Amino acid sequence: KAGVTQTPRYLIKTRGQQVTLSCSPISGHRSVSWYQQTPGQGLQFLFEYFSETQRNKGNFPGRFSGRQFSNSRSEMNVSTLELGDSALYLCASSPSGGPDTDTQYFGPGTRLTVL
Amino acid sequence: DQQVKQNSPSLSVQEGRISILNCDYTNSMFDYFLWYKKYPAEGPTFLISISSIKDKNEDGRFTVFLNKSAKHLSLHIVPSQPGDSAVYFCAASFAGGGADGLTFGKGTHLIIQP
Description:
A: 11 strands; B: 11 strands
C-alpha cells in the first residue's frame, strides 16, 4: 500500500498570502489529522477530519482551516500568512481515528517558509 | 502550558547499551501514550504504545514503562543500534473513540555512538 503523501513538499510564501496544502491518506483510511511542527512548540494538533466532517480541532486561530473530500483526501488552508506560520505541516491518516485502536501513519510533511 | 514534556533535548548512548528516554505529563486525563520515531525529512513513525491500565508494554528491543502516580513514562531501547539514531516523540491522548488529537512532547534527539 502506498503511504500518506503530501504535496507540495516545500513552499515559500510571503506574509499576507494564503496557502493550501494537500494530503492523500493511505487507501481505505477515513481519518486525516493535521499537525504543525515548529522548533519552539514541537508537534501540535491542528484538526482532524473523518468522513468529510471536522471531528476535532486544536487550539489554532481561524486562519487555519481544512476540508476533506469524499475520497478522504484532505486539504489544509492558511490565510493571511504570518512569519510564525513557518513550520513543517504533517498529515496523518488512520482507518477510523481513535488513537487507542488505530495507528496513525504520518506523511513526510510540507515545509512552509513565510518570508 | 506544555502537557507533555520531554526534558532532555538530546541523549547520546553507546551502541549496544541501553537507551532510556523519559517523558512526563501533567494532564491526569490522558489514558493512552505513544512513542514515535522521526528521521530527518520523514514524518514520525509509530513505535510503541501503552494504555493506562498497563504499566509495561514490550515489543522486541523496545519497552515502554508507565508510572501513573508519577505521571511519567519511559522508553527503553536495548540493545541500542546505530539505526536508532533519530528524534523520539512521546505523545498522549484520551482513549475511548474519536481522535482528539495527539499531544506531543518536543522530542529527544537520540544519538547512538559507535
